Amino acid sequence: MMTAQMFFIAFFGLAAVWFGIVVFRTFSMVRSALALLFSQTALGAMFLSMQAEFLGVLQIMMMATEMSIMAIFMVMFMMDPGGLGEMEMTHQKRLSLVTGFVSFVAAVMIAVFVDWGPMANTFPDAAQQTVDLGLELLGRSMLIFEMAGITILTAMIAATAVAIQPAKKVSQ
Amino acid sequence: MGPELVIALIAGAALFGVGIYGALSQTNLVMIMMGVELVLAGAMVNMLAFWRYLHPDNPAGQMFVLIIMTVMAIEMSVGFGVAIARFRAKGSVEMEEAAELKG
Amino acid sequence: MTTLLVLLLLIAGAYFVAVLEAWISNGRFRLAAPLYATIALLGRESIVPRKPDRIFFEVGPVLLLLSALLAATVIPLTPDLIITELATGALFINAALVYVLVALLMAGWGPDGAYAMIGGWRFLGQLIAYAMLIVMPITAVAMRAESLLSTQIVVSQLGLWNIIYQPLGFVLFFVASMALAFLPPFDMMIAKGELAGGVEAEYTGARLAVFRLGRLVLIITLASATAIFYLGGWQGPWLPPWAWSAIKILVVTATMLLAGRYMPRIREAHLLSWCWMLGIPLALINILIVGILVLEFP
Q1: Rounded Cα–Cα distance for residues B40 and B44 (Å)
Q2: Is B78 within 8 Å of A151 when comparing Cβ atoms?
Q3: Closest CA in chain A for residue C87
Q4: How does residue C285 score in pLDDT terms, banded at 50, 70 and 90?
Q5: Whether C94 contacts chain A with CB within 8 A
Q6: Which of A73, A75, A110, A141 is the best substitution to test chain B (most B C-beta atoms within 10 A)?
Q7: Are residues A130 and C86, on separate chains, in Cβ contact within 8 Å?
Q8: Average pLDDT, chain A
Q9: What range does the domain containing C292 cover?
């Protein structure tokens, strides 16, 4: 039986995977970064079709900024950002193909053969979900949430400290 | 056992596989980070599918997705910091040329 | 039905913005000018640059229009005139508007022209500056409403509009939304006279028409968002709700267009330092003040 939800999950899942593959197939760096963006956006749409509205919208919002920043870093750091020279940028191709495929097959086997138990049929509506998530974040899981915040702060400071231009030494 | 959960898990597995391939095969630091983002995205799909189809009454599942998003952001910021420092010192972020730590 | 009506209203609003913008910038009030300009643009030859990134080149203008339209779907013009009532409406507006950046990056990178590309990357720098100042004031607004529903946000301002309740947030949101719509003091990415049109430089004909329409719809969408977040949306005495919505949106639009005329362009590096050193602390203070007010004087 094919329900609308199943169709949309499969469709957006397929779109996400396809754009994920495009990331490593194209030569143009900007295309590569934006393909990753569309992969993540398809994922956000998949969240929306799984009725997790808050997370879906959040995913769609956050990834747009993240991947655009990725695009400018690609352009900054690559010799050939437009992809006109069709430069080879891969190594250990066979090993990575095999590893990727094996991990995919292993994960699929687990997904298919494990008995996941009874499926839940009821779920809270979108507004209730947001309330629940907020209460969870500031209640039972507050420590984890605070840790995440502190970690972001540390990462920001560390990244800035690493990336900042070293002060010029006074020449003798 | 409904097929929706399995479809979502297979999509997550495929994203994971593609991400692993990308992270292992690319020579550029930024491209490797893209692979890692895809791996994390696969994990995110799985967490959300488990929340929705197995434990929808427990918001901790959604919270884990939020934490994974945080991890993605942290990975980006630290990765780009390292990339900038490396580019400034060596003039490229090609990982083929980064073998100083190889024993 | 509602969808069609809202779309028509948006188009009418965009037309009005075009007339108003021409009136403010060159001092001539001509009602038919945008119509003639549209016909001229549609009739003109559509030139494609020599080596474009074809997908980005075509998608860019359409995505700009689409993201502005999507953001407009959760904006209530009257209690009933809203396309979809999302439980995360306030967040959704933001999510849709981030794609303005993606559209401009595509339009900048696509045609393979130097001016266009500089314009696109400039907008990325500008986004890093204004993005937080869009999100944080909305957070404070949602805190007062205790909901992300856009209708609930309007209802929460009964009696005391948010512009009086949190004036700091209003100022920050207003400035940030001007930067988002790349209106004059922040129009480094289309900088006429310096970048030769920037992102628009390589577009001609129908594509340029779509791009300009997208920009006008974006301005009207942001003005409506300001109206529902800070000016009480459809609320007001004597007049019916739709009239109040229309008046508020038009006043906000006119203010946005006028304010930029008397300021020099702000370079995105200066905007970055102003936003991060002054804007974000102010936004945090705003959240703190609103939190205290919400908890202590409910």
Answers
A1: 6
A2: no
A3: A127
A4: very high
A5: yes
A6: A73
A7: no
A8: 85
A9: 2-296
Where are the extended beta strands (E) located within B1-103? none
Residue A83 has what pLDDT?
66
Give the ipTM.
0.87
What are phi and psi for residue B2, nearest 5 degrees?
-95, 155
**Count of domains forming chain C:** 1
> C164-204: per-residue pLDDT in tens?
888 999 999 999 999 888 888 888 777 777 777 777 777 88
List Cβ neighbours of A111 (8 Å cut-off, separation of 6 or more).
Answer: B6, B9, B10, B12, B13
Q: For a pLDDT cut of 90, what percent of chain C falls above it?
A: 19
Hey, which residues does B28 pair with through a beta bridge?
A: B94
Domain boundaries, chain A: 1-77, 130-158
Low-confidence ranges of chain B (pLDDT < 50): 1
pLDDT at C136 over 60: yes
CB-CB under 8 Å, A155 with B10? no
Contact C131 A65 (CB under 8 A): yes
CATH class of B3-97: mainly alpha
- Collect all residues of chain B within an 8 Å Cβ-Cβ radius of residue A69: 76, 80
Question: Of the candidates A34, A54, A82, which has its C-beta nearest C88's C-beta?
Answer: A54
How many other β-carbons are positioned within 10 Å of the β-carbon of residue C163?
17
Alpha helices in A26-141 (DSSP H): 29-49, 53-77, 93-113, 126-137
Q: pLDDT tens digits, residue range A93-138? A: 888 888 889 999 998 888 888 888 888 777 888 888 888 888 888 8
- The chain-wide mean pLDDT, for chain C, equals 86
Tell whether the model's pLDDT for residue A81 goes beyond 90. no
Sort out which chain B residues have CB atoms less than 8 A from A115's CB and list them.
Answer: 1
pLDDT of A91 > 80? The answer is no
Band of residue C137 on the pLDDT scale cut at 50, 70, 90: very high
Distances (CA, A) of A100 to A21, A136, A148, B5, B35: 12, 35, 29, 22, 11
Contacts of A4 in chain B (CB under 8 A): none
SS3 state at B26:
strand
Q: Are B and C touching by the rule of 3+ CB pairs within 8 Å?
A: no
- Distance to chain B for A162, nearest Cα, Å: 6
For residue A47, give the nearest of B48, B73, B80 by CB distance.
B48
Distance CA A40, CA A19 (A): 9
All structural domains of chain B with their residue ranges: 3-97
Percentage of chain C lying above the pLDDT 70 cut? 100
Closest-CA residue to A137 (of B54, C92, B64): B64
- Where do we find the tokens 């200066």? C270
Distance of CA B40 to the CA centre of its chain: 3
Q: Quick: pLDDT tens for C197-248.
A: 777 777 888 888 888 889 899 999 999 999 999 988 888 888 888 888 888 9
- A-facing residues of B in 33-52 (CB < 8 A) are 33-35, 37-38, 41, 44-45, 48-49, 51-52
Q: With CB atoms and an 8 Å threshold, state whether C86 touches A53.
A: yes
